[in-house]
């Protein structure tokens, strides 16, 4: 047996004995009205996906087939999406995507107070699966990652905990847990959301930030959660409480995120603000985006409706159905309107003489005639009246919609006076 085959079998055994916990209960308040009726992991992304599909797909592609999704805030659409799109795993083979809603309150009679508490309140269920390793994942980031090498490095180092990390600009690092490591990769300092992030020794413009990805030896995690639960002053959060408490006496190591194919620091996006959400989606319509959604080696899985192809009709000079440098999903009908550098989710109807530029349109939207919309995010279910102009006058837009610092206009049904039910 050659060394590569031995390594593959070693990683395969580790992934089989790993339980992945996806923390998907957060609202994502910086996304403003996009999360009025849905949790951040349920927010649509990339024309046909939801944010939660990325960590779930990473698990499947990494051969981790035992997955639990821990939900809390506005979880209906997230739960429905997982039930429809992620029920293909075979229970008789020990494969599953299991939902753990906060409402079951199996340990305490309260909502989750932090990320560690969310795991602690589900300890009885987690223990019943008898994992050797537990992989804790944030459910709200866009990236591709093979978790197998991280699990292998955790075991080879005899670590108690391993923290996934990557280098980010200092200003961005203020929103993350920032760590310092020694020459062997052991974490010697960890500060959650520091006002003055400590730069890395090799790059004064970058800090080493936690990705919210953790590997634990199962029994070690159970014990640490029980200890943390006894401290009333604890916020019961991995970044604020668990990691700082462990780095003094336990083996906590950093794992630097590497691309699954290029072996360099790869694509990773926190789409936690309206600007970041708009930018990450707009990147996808470029000629060669960093995130390759057409990758057959590391596909992103999701639930999608059975819809007809997108259709473009009319070919007059002033009434031509067309799209340039854009992505248009199934079920869309572009009737005598123009789309430039935009991304349309499914079932979007765009009527004659309208122009769409640098705009993200979520599913089931209808845009009337003679509309001109630029640099906007149109939420699911909106019906845009004819002759609407968005993105041309910032002050006028701000009277009706949310306008970001960079000028992105967020439009939701509620802002248009269109009351929809909370199921999306």
From TrEMBL:
<dbReference type="InterPro" id="IPR029044">
    <property type="entry name" value="Nucleotide-diphossugar_trans"/>
</dbReference>
<dbReference type="InterPro" id="IPR023049">
    <property type="entry name" value="GlgC_bac"/>
</dbReference>
<dbReference type="Pfam" id="PF24894">
    <property type="entry name" value="Hexapep_GlmU"/>
</dbReference>
<dbReference type="GO" id="GO:0005524">
    <property type="term" value="F:ATP binding"/>
</dbReference>
<keyword id="KW-0067">ATP-binding</keyword>
<feature type="binding site">
    <location>
        <position position="177"/>
    </location>
    <ligand>
        <name>alpha-D-glucose 1-phosphate</name>
    </ligand>
</feature>
<dbReference type="GO" id="GO:0005978">
    <property type="term" value="P:glycogen biosynthetic process"/>
</dbReference>
<comment type="similarity">
    <text>Belongs to the bacterial/plant glucose-1-phosphate adenylyltransferase family.</text>
</comment>
<keyword id="KW-0548">Nucleotidyltransferase</keyword>
<keyword id="KW-0119">Carbohydrate metabolism</keyword>
<keyword id="KW-0547">Nucleotide-binding</keyword>
<feature type="binding site">
    <location>
        <position position="210"/>
    </location>
    <ligand>
        <name>alpha-D-glucose 1-phosphate</name>
    </ligand>
</feature>
<feature type="site" description="Could play a key role in the communication between the regulatory and the substrate sites">
    <location>
        <position position="111"/>
    </location>
</feature>
<feature type="binding site">
    <location>
        <begin position="192"/>
        <end position="193"/>
    </location>
    <ligand>
        <name>alpha-D-glucose 1-phosphate</name>
    </ligand>
</feature>
<keyword id="KW-0808">Transferase</keyword>
<feature type="binding site">
    <location>
        <position position="112"/>
    </location>
    <ligand>
        <name>alpha-D-glucose 1-phosphate</name>
    </ligand>
</feature>
<keyword id="KW-0321">Glycogen metabolism</keyword>
<dbReference type="InterPro" id="IPR011831">
    <property type="entry name" value="ADP-Glc_PPase"/>
</dbReference>
<comment type="subunit">
    <text>Homotetramer.</text>
</comment>
<protein>
    <recommendedName>
        <fullName>Glucose-1-phosphate adenylyltransferase</fullName>
        <ecNumber>2.7.7.27</ecNumber>
    </recommendedName>
</protein>
<comment type="pathway">
    <text>Glycan biosynthesis; glycogen biosynthesis.</text>
</comment>
<comment type="function">
    <text>Involved in the biosynthesis of ADP-glucose, a building block required for the elongation reactions to produce glycogen. Catalyzes the reaction between ATP and alpha-D-glucose 1-phosphate (G1P) to produce pyrophosphate and ADP-Glc.</text>
</comment>
<dbReference type="InterPro" id="IPR011004">
    <property type="entry name" value="Trimer_LpxA-like_sf"/>
</dbReference>
<dbReference type="Pfam" id="PF00483">
    <property type="entry name" value="NTP_transferase"/>
</dbReference>
<feature type="domain" description="Nucleotidyl transferase">
    <location>
        <begin position="20"/>
        <end position="284"/>
    </location>
</feature>
<dbReference type="InterPro" id="IPR005836">
    <property type="entry name" value="ADP_Glu_pyroP_CS"/>
</dbReference>
<dbReference type="InterPro" id="IPR056818">
    <property type="entry name" value="GlmU/GlgC-like_hexapep"/>
</dbReference>
<keyword id="KW-0320">Glycogen biosynthesis</keyword>
<dbReference type="GO" id="GO:0008878">
    <property type="term" value="F:glucose-1-phosphate adenylyltransferase activity"/>
</dbReference>
<feature type="domain" description="Glucose-1-phosphate adenylyltransferase/Bifunctional protein GlmU-like C-terminal hexapeptide">
    <location>
        <begin position="308"/>
        <end position="411"/>
    </location>
</feature>
<feature type="site" description="Could play a key role in the communication between the regulatory and the substrate sites">
    <location>
        <position position="72"/>
    </location>
</feature>
<dbReference type="InterPro" id="IPR005835">
    <property type="entry name" value="NTP_transferase_dom"/>
</dbReference>
């Amino acid at each position: 047996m050659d060394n590569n085959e031995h390594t593959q079998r070693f990683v395969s055994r580790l992934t089989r004995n790993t339980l992945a916990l996806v923390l998907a209960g957060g609202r994502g308040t910086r996304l403003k009205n996009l999360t009025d009726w849905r949790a951040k992991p349920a927010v649509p992304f990339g024309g046909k996906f939801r944010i939660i599909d990325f960590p779930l797909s990473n698990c499947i592609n990494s051969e981790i087939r035992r997955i639990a999704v821990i939900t809390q805030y506005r979880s209906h659409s997230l739960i429905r999406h997982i039930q429809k799109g992620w029920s293909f795993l075979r229970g008789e083979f020990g494969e599953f995507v299991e939902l753990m809603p906060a409402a079951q309150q199996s340990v305490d009679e309260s909502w989750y107070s932090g990320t560690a508490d969310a795991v602690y309140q589900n300890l009885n269920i987690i223990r019943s699966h008898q994992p050797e390793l537990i992989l804790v994942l944030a459910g709200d980031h866009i990236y591709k990652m093979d978790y197998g090498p991280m699990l292998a490095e955790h075991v080879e180092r005899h670590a108690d905990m391993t923290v996934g990390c990557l280098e980010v600009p200092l200003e961005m690092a203020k929103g993350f847990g920032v760590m310092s490591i020694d020459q062997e990769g052991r974490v010697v300092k960890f500060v959650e959301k520091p006002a003055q992030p400590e730069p890395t020794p090799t790059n004064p413009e970058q800090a080493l930030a936690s990705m919210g990805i953790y590997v634990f030896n199962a029994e070690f995690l159970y014990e640490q959660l029980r200890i943390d639960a006894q401290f009333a002053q604890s916020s019961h959060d991995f970044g604020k409480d668990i990691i700082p408490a462990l780095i003094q006496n336990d083996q906590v190591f950093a794992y630097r995120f590497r691309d699954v194919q290029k072996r360099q620091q790869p694509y990773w996006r926190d789409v936690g603000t309206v600007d970041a959400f708009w930018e990450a989606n707009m990147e996808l319509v470029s000629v060669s985006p960093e995130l390759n959604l057409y990758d057959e080696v590391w596909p992103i899985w999701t639930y999608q409706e059975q819809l007809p192809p997108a259709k473009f009709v009319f070919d007059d000079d002033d009434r031509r159905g067309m799209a340039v440098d854009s992505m248009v999903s199934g079920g869309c009908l572009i009737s005598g309107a123009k789309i430039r550098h935009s991304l349309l989710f499914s079932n979007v109807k765009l009527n004659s003489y309208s122009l769409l530029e640098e705009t993200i349109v979520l599913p089931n939207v209808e845009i009337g005639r003679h509309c001109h919309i630029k640099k906007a995010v149109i939420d699911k279910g909106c019906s845009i009246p004819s002759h609407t102009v968005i993105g041309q006058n910032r002050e006028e837009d701000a009277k009706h919609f949310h306008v970001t610092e960079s000028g992105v206009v967020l439009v939701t049904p509620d802002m248009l006076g269109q009351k929809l039910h909370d199921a999306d």
